[in-house]
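Recap quiz, item 2
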Amino acid sequence: MWDESPEGMGELAVETKNLVRIYRRKRSSQDSQERQVIALDGVNVEIPYGELFGLLGPNGAGKTTLIKILVTLLLPTSGTARVAGLDVVQQAYQVRELISMVSGGEHSGYGLLTVREQLWMFSQFYGLPTRLALARIDELLKIVGLYEERNRRVSDLSTGMRQKMNLVRGLLSDPLVFFLDEPTVGLDVSAARDIRAYIKEWIREKPGRTILLTTHYMQEAEELCDRVAIIHKGRIIACDSPAALRRSAASGSYFLLTTERLSEDGWLKEVPGVRRVDIRVLDGRTEIRLQVAEDGVIAEVVRALADRERKIYSLTKVEPSLEDVFMQLVGRRMEEADEGR
Amino acid sequence: MRAGKKLTRVFRAMVGRSYPRIIGSNRDKSWLFYDTVLPLLGTVAFVYVYKALGAPERFIGYVIMGGATTAFWMNVMWSMAAQFYWEKQGGNLELYMMMPCGLTPILLGMSLGGLVATLLRAILIVSLGSLLFHVSYTLPQVPLFLLIFTITIIALYGLGVVFASLFLFWGREAWHTVNLFMEPVFLASGFYFPVRALGFWVGLGASIIPLTLGLDAMRQLLFAGMHPALLPVEVELAILGFVAILFILLARHLLQKMEYLARREGRLSLRF
Ligand SMILES: Nc1ncnc2c1ncn2[C@@H]1O[C@H](COP(=O)(O)OP(=O)(O)OP(=O)(O)O)[C@@H](O)[C@H]1O
Ligand SMILES: [Mg+2]
């Protein structure tokens, strides 16, 4: 609940300066040695009011850590962070009045309550009068398509339903800045689509509403976000609108080529004009994503394949994607950059 | 936010969090067996032992009161103390820490819910037991009795929050250890006999559990003149008040520590 105009609360909805977070961890219970994990390594972000801002990065990049600092659940090791102009360390309680957070795969609440009861319980933590709370709950449940399930027990919900309920929970207090940590992780296509659709609608409904969303789905970031920051190993390595990011990566042309299985592919990189080759093997076929200096180069690639007597199943020119941007910046596909790989 | 609005919020948060506790016991009827029939069985066993020994009638009243008190003890040790652990597992604790109303009203609500649910069980145990064994009570000093009961309960739930935080810091093993260690203390609290029977010092030692003194004081009122008291009612009440304040302060301190630890370390247990 926020009555004042967002302009009265600083220029930016979120602002971090040189944010660093180091976790200390012992390797085992006997071990006296501590290991340090640098989860955030000097993060600077500025999110104006009204923006749907995405944080895209592989597992272990530091996305959740950043969100936790911003929602006052974690202290930064150094640097500062402000939400709605308020310092998240010094003014944590004031920040909490203006925000909420929903995480993917969250199992909050109590299984024995019904959906409506559970949401009512959470509304009470914000001090909403019961009648207003129930009206708001019903309205939100209708919008996300969960109204029919309102009297079902929370423990009986499917993953998609549960996540929709969590989304409603996060919106009960009408937050000014809404934090979503991988809101569609593990959901089926249609549930994920519903959630994305509603997120987009919610932010447009009232000027000033701001969302920071993390994801490791490229398409999600691309489809939803006004701006995307790519985070890798605790650093923001790029930050711009999806279109601008794609443009920045797009030197040359991109092609997608499927061929008969290639036993040896090192030669592809040697074809003159080929900048990058990205190969996946899918049931007996080889899918090759190529970045080439200019369109003409593809003819050379096709010829080289013909020389090796490999069948070509398909050849498409494609737009560069955020995946390509990530490749360009990190040198690996995002899924390969997951921590522990 | 104005103070009035904040106070309303604290109240609403409390009621909100007590709701699943109260409703939960209606929805899952197994408590009727576990929380009423089981304590009653233990009670009945003691009743027959006393009858066989030819103990005075009032001992049966003692035992029934002890049975009712056991319900509170069980609620605090098994539901309250373990609760943080479950709240943490499900991610609730983290969410609660983020709530603008703060953790305290939510915890109060948790205690309130537990209390209401347990009060129901206790009343059931006392009514059933009294009906079965034809015990009648005379209670001349109702306000004093209620005062003792209230302070006992406050101290007891304070202790519950203290244990809850400790178990969160030190993990589930600590919980089991404390439970093991609690069993003899629980017996020494004189749930089924006047605590004085164990000797003054043992009784005083067991007084760290607020129920010990609470029970002794309430029994003094119920069986005036016949009860071998540990200490005079007034003194017991004073100690209880002191213990209640002690536990509440300790609980507050531990909660603040918990929140700080969570924010600084990014985890809640003290063990690595
Ligand atoms: N409480 C903690 N204690 C120690 N290390 C931690 C803790 N939480 C996170 N880390 C480490 O910090 C780094 C960043 O983790 P974080 O959870 O922020 O990543 P993420 O981008 O959210 O990843 P994911 O996509 O898997 O959710 C990782 O190396 C992780 O192992
Ligand atoms: Mg994460």
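The interface with chain B takes residues 23-26, 28-29, 65, 68, 71-75, 93, 96-97, 99-101, 103, 106-110, 112-113, 117, 120-128 of chain A (CB under 8 Å).
The pocket of adenosine-5'-triphosphate (ligand 1) is lined by residues A 23, 25, 37, 39, 57, 59-65, 216, 339; B 266-267 (CB under 6 Å).
End of item.
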